[in-house]
């Protein structure tokens, strides 16, 4: 019930992860059992809504993995519900101002650090009361990553990183590029410069950085200091394997026809 992701990052590890987009518990199990030790359950763009997505935590953990949850919105009710249902590592999208960052940080931790609503003894997060010290220890177990994915967030990045309770900034290059007038142009010079500005600010602030493969692959991101790298997703993995299988079967048939 402890936060394995947070501990691995504190130990200096660079974590690779995969998005879970289909909302399938079977796919979650397959991904973990084939080597993806961390899955990010995507309740923003994925097929699973919040409640269904939170249910997928069970499949990930039962297979031996660690689950992160990207929530669909930064509302107090959403974040409270996610934590109560057992999410320990959260990614919050589109955090564009220091005021928004402060609110989010306060929503996910109990007083005196924050204002998270109390139901510790009856929620899944505490094992339905089996973890009697959950209320006292929950603040330490939460891992909060906020997404920097808009030009406004880049301007406020240093202030956002200074907010107590934020553990990581997670750079979203696609939406950032779109907000700067360079939709799907991740290598546009000013987009690259904006990401570099956030990366440098994070280095100066000793703040963890996460992100996704895009213009840079996993190796390059690791070289540039990223500590959580979401490298793939279940939809793309299935689509690529499907294309390869179709091509292999057609090629085998063509060889037989040519030989006959």
Can you give me a brief rundown of this structure?
This protein is of the alpha/beta class and 260 residues long. It has helices at 4-10, 25-33, 50-62, 76-84, 98-107, 134-141, 151-155, 157-161, 173-179, 189-205, 218-223, 234-259, and strands at 15-20, 38-42, 66-70, 89-92, 143-148, 168-171, 208-212, 228-233. The protein has an eight-stranded parallel beta barrel with strand order 1-2-3-4-5-6-7-8, surrounded by six helices.
Count of folded domains? 1
Summarize the main sheet. Answer: 8 strands, parallel, barrel
Reading off the top of the CATH hierarchy, the class is best stated as Alpha Beta
- Spans of at least 5 consecutive residues whose pLDDT stays below 50 are none
Q: Determine Rg (CA atoms, Å).
A: 20 Å
Assign the CATH topology.
TIM Barrel
Q: What is the number of E strands?
A: 8
Q: Any key phrases for this structure?
A:
8 strands, 16% strand, lyase, eight-stranded parallel β-barrel, alpha/beta, 12 helices, single chain, Pyrv_kinase-like_dom_sf
């Amino acid at each position: 019930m402890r936060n394995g992701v947070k501990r691995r990052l504190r130990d200096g590890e660079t974590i690779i992860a995969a998005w879970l987009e289909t909302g399938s518990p079977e796919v979650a199990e397959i991904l973990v059992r084939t080597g993806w030790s961390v899955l990010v359950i995507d309740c923003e763009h994925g097929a699973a809504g919040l409640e269904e997505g939170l249910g997928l935590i069970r499949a990930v953990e039962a297979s031996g993995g660690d689950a992160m949850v990207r929530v669909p919105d930064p509302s107090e009710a959403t974040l409270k519900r996610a934590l109560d249902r057992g999410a320990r590592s959260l990614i919050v999208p589109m955090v564009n101002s220091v005021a928004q960052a402060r609110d989010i940080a306060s929503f996910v931790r109990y007083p005196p650090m924050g204002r998270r609503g109390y139901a510790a003894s009856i929620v899944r997060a505490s094992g339905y009361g089996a973890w009697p010290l959950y209320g006292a220890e929950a603040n330490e177990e939460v891992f909060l990553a906020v997404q920097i994915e808009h030009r406004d967030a880049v301007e406020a990045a240093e202030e956002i990183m200074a907010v107590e309770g934020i553990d990581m900034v997670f750079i979203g290059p696609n939406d950032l590029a779109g907000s700067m007038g360079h939709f799907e142009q991740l290598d546009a010079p000013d987009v690259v410069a904006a990401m570099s500005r956030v990366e440098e600010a994070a280095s100066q602030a000793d703040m963890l950085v996460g992100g996704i493969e895009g213009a840079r692959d996993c190796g390059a991101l690791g070289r540039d200091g990223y500590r959580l790298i979401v490298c793939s997703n279940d939809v793309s993995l299935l689509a690529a394997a499907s294309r390869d299988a179709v091509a292999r079967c057609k090629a085998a048939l063509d060889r037989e026809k040519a030989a006959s």
